[in-house]
């Protein structure tokens, strides 16, 4: 979710006033389950990824209310409403925003093309939005994938499903919550007691990290 969308939610619905400031501990306010489906070229390279974000039900309700969708609250959107909702989270991408998805091959960060929305749904009260991003081709073996919001306003979870071309597998490294919070507190202490925390880049401290392994093409 881009920072413009965060401002939209906070300003339009005034929820920021009800949110505690993350001083002693960092805690997100929006929760997103992430599914990834990678495309390959058949030669051991990956060339793009389909990203699905399933937003938590409270945030979904805020968005639907703000956009005037599902006024009867039955959890069913008309096709016209779905068309209006599609791509809602991709409209405004501030300069420098990378889409909360980071892919590295060794020390090299892979440049991802601007997202193209491909699908939208409302499932059990949750907005499920899908977009695709092209890149590469880059070798799949050893690729590292991180999904996180640098400000940790949004917590992304790689709950999947995760789909890869044949011959590729993945492993996910889970963060240590206690160690992450301690690192966060140490970062705040270095800023100084009178420095207000306003969204420093800390999301990577709390994020999962996925590593891809691919067998050499035969």
TrEMBL record:
Keywords: Kinase, Signal, Transferase. InterPro entries: DUF1007 (IPR010412), EF_Hand_1_Ca_BS (IPR018247). It holds the Pfam family DUF1007. It comes from the Bacteria. The keyword Transferase applies. Residues 1-26 form the signal peptide. GO terms for molecular function: kinase activity. PROSITE patterns: EF_HAND_1. This is Polyphosphate kinase.
């Amino acid at each position: 979710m881009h920072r413009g969308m965060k401002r939209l939610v906070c300003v339009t619905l005034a929820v920021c006033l009800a949110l505690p400031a993350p001083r002693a501990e960092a805690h997100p306010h929006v929760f997103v389950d992430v599914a990834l489906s990678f495309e390959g070229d058949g030669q051991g390279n990956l060339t793009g990824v389909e990203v699905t974000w399933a937003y938590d039900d409270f945030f979904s309700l805020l968005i639907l209310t703000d956009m005037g969708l599902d006024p009867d609250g039955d959890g069913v959107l008309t096709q016209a409403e779905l068309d209006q909702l599609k791509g809602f989270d991709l409209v405004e991408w501030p300069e420098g925003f990378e889409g909360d998805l980071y892919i590295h091959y060794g020390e090299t960060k892979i440049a991802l093309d601007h997202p193209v929305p491909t699908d939208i749904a409302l499932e059990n009260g949750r907005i499920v939005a899908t977009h695709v991003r092209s890149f590469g081709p880059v070798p799949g073996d050893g690729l590292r994938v991180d999904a996180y919001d640098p400000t940790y306003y949004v917590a992304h979870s790689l709950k999947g499903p995760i789909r890869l071309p044949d011959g590729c597998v993945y492993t996910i490294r889970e963060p240590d919550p206690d160690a992450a919070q301690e690192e966060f507190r140490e970062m705040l202490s270095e800023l100084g007691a009178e420095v207000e925390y306003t969204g420093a880049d800390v999301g990577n401290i709390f994020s999962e990290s996925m590593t891809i392994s691919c067998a050499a093409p035969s």
